[in-house]
Amino acid sequence: MCGTEVRVLGEVEIRVGGRILALGPPRQRRLLAALLIQPNVQISTGELISRVWNGSPPARVHNALYSYVSRLRGVLQGSDRLVLTRGHRGYVLLVDEDDIDLCRFRGLVARARQSGTDRRRAKQTYEKALSLCRGVPFVDVDAAWLVDLRARFAAERLGAELDLFDICLREGKSSELLGPLNHYAAEHPLDERIAAQLMTVLCRHGRQADALRRYAGLSRRLRNELGVDPGARLVELHGRILSGACP
């Protein structure tokens, strides 16, 4: 039995026993992506056609789909852990979800969040999960229907990184967080959790004035753009910095 790795967090890649499989032309890769985003679930023929041809199928499309399915089966024959099979209404890719990096990422993040007070274990598990992320999911698959999945994963990855940053801050480590937090604050200017972490890091580096300016700018934008005030956690942090108590 050969070890199988299915990597979708970045370019799609399947490794079997260390050998990278040739996944074929763009539509065949779309078919694979459509099956991988719902592993072990039967996807209807109509849904697969819509996804493989991006909503614009040709004449005699069923014959074309069968051809891509047959070719993909041939590619996957190199692994006994990837089986593309026909159901009553469509097709299903049978696979151990632990072989798929996206599924492993989600499992590791869930495990880290269940670590309770064991910070060391949680930190190691978050780091292991984040090490799987090579880039945008299915980055080499041109398909509009992947936009939502990519957005959801970006939020999941950011949440995991912020969880890891919280652990680092509780351990008194902050210098390595300044760059990433500045980057995320620019990308998510209304995110109060990011703002709180960045204000904490700035304060710990003797930059209380910058932390207070960050709060003032966020507070102004929240009122102007959303019509709300900062949440209780951020208000409390602001008060502590004003009083000279570095968090």
UniProtKB/TrEMBL annotation:
Keywords: DNA-binding, Transcription, Transcription regulation. Residues 1-95 form the OmpR/PhoB-type domain. GO terms for molecular function: DNA binding. GO terms for biological process: phosphorelay signal transduction system; regulation of DNA-templated transcription. Residues 1-95 bind DNA. InterPro entries: AfsR-DnrI-RedD_regulator, BTAD, OmpR/PhoB-type_DNA-bd, Sig_transdc_resp-reg_C-effctor, TPR-like_helical_dom_sf, WH-like_DNA-bd_sf. The keyword Cell division does not apply. PANTHER family: TRANSCRIPTIONAL REGULATOR REDD (PTHR35807:SF1), TRANSCRIPTIONAL REGULATOR REDD-RELATED (PTHR35807). Belongs to the AfsR/DnrI/RedD regulatory family. This is Winged helix-turn-helix domain-containing protein. It comes from Amycolatopsis dendrobii.
